[in-house]
Design a protein that fits this description.
The strands form two sheets. A two-stranded antiparallel ribbon has the order 1-2. The chain is built from seven helices and four strands. The chain is 46% helix and 10% strand. The protein has 153 residues and is mainly alpha-helical. It starts with a helix and ends with a helix. Strand 1 and strand 2 form a beta hairpin.
């Protein structure tokens, strides 16, 4: 079974959003459930250099901080690699970890060349810890090698 776009977007949204709820926020939610006036909401401190939050139906910018700042793409390529992996690979399909994937810079998983990992676990692990080796393994499985995969992207 392959994942559809809505499932992919849902997973990526959950993985990429990092909300920090304070005790005040939890109290606000609790008071709403009990039909009481909500306690004041504390807005979390945003530490990112640049942020934009857009309401999708209206296109209204809900929040922005240095939204026009030019920055390197960070993990955007890894995110796109995982999306393509979810589209092209079956969840239980086995991916063989190559020597390149196992020894790629900033690989946090203790994989060895020849290890086999289910595609769904590889994608999830790659997204959760931003693992470069996982992205290489996905690219190699889908494209045959990283260069061919880059053309697919």
């Amino acid at each position: 079974m392959k994942f559809n776009s809505k499932q992919i977007l849902t997973v990526l949204t959950i993985l990429t959003l990092n909300f920090q709820f304070s005790t005040t926020n939890a109290e606000s939610i609790g008071s709403i459930v009990q039909n009481q006036a909500p306690a004041p909401v504390t807005i979390p401190q945003i530490e990112a250099d640049s942020v934009i939050l857009i309401e999708t139906q209206s296109g209204r910018v809900v929040y922005e901080k240095n939204a026009d700042m030019i920055l390197p793409p960070a993990s955007t390529t890894k995110t796109l690699t995982c999306i393509i992996g979810l589209e092209q690979l079956l969840p239980n399909e086995m991916v063989v970890i190559s020597e390149d994937a196992a020894y790629t810079e900033d690989t946090t998983f203790p994989w060895n060349p020849g290890d086999q990992v289910q595609a769904q676990k590889l994608v999830l692990g790659t997204m959760l810890v931003s693992d470069n080796g996982g992205a290489v393994a996905i690219a190699e499985k889908v494209g045959g090698n990283v260069s061919n995969f880059a053309r697919i992207m």
